[in-house]
Amino acid sequence: MGTFCYNFSKYALMVVSFVFLIIAITVIALAAWMLTDKTFLVSIAQESNNYDAGLYILLAAGILMFIVAFLGCYGAFKHSRCSLITFFVIMLVIIVAQIASAGWLYTNCDRLDELLRSSVSNTVKKEYGEVECRTQIMDTIQSGLECCGANGPADWAGSKYGSLSKDPSLPISLTVSADADNMYKVPESCCKEIHSSACNESRNLKIAGIVSPAIYNEGCTQKLVDTLKGQTSNVMIIALLVLIVEILGLILALICCCEGGASDRYKA
């Protein structure tokens, strides 16, 4: 019975380690993709340097998971208690770190929401057209979510990009007139049909004027928040499944260590 239990745990641990290996490769590939493609929606919530630092941490975590998966496979296949113990300890640390991270995210969700809103507004006002990666992500958001500006097209008035002929640091007149000082420009990604003649004609808007039907009239901030929150359940399900795999790996590694040790003593 003990031999059967050990063999079952051994092969089950190899399967779990293989699954964990696939997860690790996925994390590494995702981190590398996000490092090269700056148009992911979540990138808008962080400063460029902080975002890249977070991705490097994610990449390092993926590499660590890969090493742990290898240790699990090797330890189970070669009956190496040293590898199994190392696998157990590192996996336990990973689980604790994941639970702590989940707790931090839960307790700081309001702060993250505020940060996201502030970041979108700052991108519209100061960074669009100035910082290439921010310009790309904002264009992606506006085109993909069918929106314009942080809270609406009027957010582009007074922005560095939207000002047509005056210093954006100067106060904006709220009177409606035909003067260039009372005009602002929205990006092409605000158009419902990009590259169309209607888009080109409608991008120059009057302050406090009527927005053309060719331009998206809704703001992006709330749509972005709703989109990210809508993915929360999927992320939680994936995280829970990964946690189950990790805990199962811990249990199997512990069984293999105990049964392997007992088997060695029996042979002796």
TrEMBL record:
Membrane topology designation: Multi-pass membrane protein
Cross-referenced InterPro entries: Tetraspanin/Peripherin, Tetraspanin_animals, Tetraspanin_EC2_sf
UniProt keyword terms in alphabetical order: Membrane, Transmembrane, Transmembrane helix
CC annotations in GO: plasma membrane
UniProt keyword Membrane, yes or no: yes
Source taxon at top rank: Eukaryota
Transmembrane intervals: 12-35, 55-77, 84-106, 235-258
Subcellular location: Membrane
Gene3D superfamilies: Tetraspanin
Pfam families listed in its UniProt record: Tetraspanin
The family this protein is said to belong to: Belongs to the tetraspanin (TM4SF) family.
Protein's name in the database: Tetraspanin
